Amino acid sequence: MAEAARLFVDAGQIVLVSFISPFRSERRMARDLLDKGEFIEIFVDTPIELCMERDPKGLYQKAAAGEIKNFTGIDSPYEAPENAELIVKTASTTPDVLAGQIISPFKTQ
Question: Which of 18, 21, 31, 88 could form a disulfide with 39 if both were Cys (CB 3.0 to 4.6 A apart)?
Answer without folding.
Answer: 31
